[in-house]
Amino acid sequence: MRLLRSSTCAVRQYIFVDLDTREADVIDPVLDYKTASGTLSTIAADILLKFVKEKELNVPMDFVKSFDIFLKDEEEFSLSSNITGKVIHLPGHTPDHTGYMVGKAIFTWDSIFMPDLGSARADFPGGDAKDLFASITRLLSLPQDYQLFVGHDYPVGRQHDCMATVGVHQTKNKHGGFGTTESQFIQFREARDKVSGAPRLLQPSLQVNIRAGKLPPASNGRVWLKTPTKLTNPNIAL
C-alpha cells in the first residue's frame, strides 16, 4: 500500500533483505505530496530503488494487482525462498491495522511509537483506544529482546530513530509501559485525541489508501483529491 505523505513527515520505509539469496521486500513505500502546490513526486521511492539497484537486490514486483492476498492474524507468509514472516493484527489506530513479525523484528507501524512519544491517536475512522491498548499490551508481552520498528517518528531534542526493544518500551513507553492500566490509557488517549486537530494529509491519504494505493482516475492530465468542507451557515453556499 502506498501512503501519501509530505516531504517533511518522518515516515519510515523499510527494505527487508535475505542476505543469502539477495531477495528483498519493500515495506510501506510512499509517495511524496506537497499540499501547497498539489504536486506528487517519487523522491522517497526513488531513494529505495537506488538502494535496491546499488545492492543488486531482487524485489518481487506486481504492478497489476494492488492486493495479492489477504492475510489473517498470525498467518505466515513468504518473504523470500528461505524466510517467512507472520501477520499480527494490531487494531486501535485503525481497525485493520497490522504489523509484520520476522524473527525477532516486528514492524509495528502506528500501533506504537518510540518510547518517548508513546502511542498514536485512536480517533481515525474505526479507531478505538481500548483496542489500541490491547495491541500495545500484545506487543509488550513479547520477549524483551524483540525489536519494535515504528512507522513514524517525531523527535524532540533527539535524533530520528526507528526501533526500540520490547524491554525498553516496557519501562519507558510514556503512554503504555508496564504499570499503565487500561482505564488510564483510554482516559488519556481519548482526552488527547479530542483536542488534536485532524492530520494535514488525512483526507488525501484516505482517498488513496481506500483505493489500495492507487490514485483517483485522472481527468485532462490531472488527478483530483476532494476536500470536505462543512458549512456553518448554509447561506454561504448561495
Automatic annotation (TrEMBL):
It comes from the Eukaryota. GO terms for biological process: glutathione metabolic process; hydrogen sulfide metabolic process. One of its GO terms (molecular function) is sulfur dioxygenase activity. This is Beta-lactamase-like protein. InterPro entries: Mito_Persulfide_Diox, RibonucZ/Hydroxyglut_hydro.
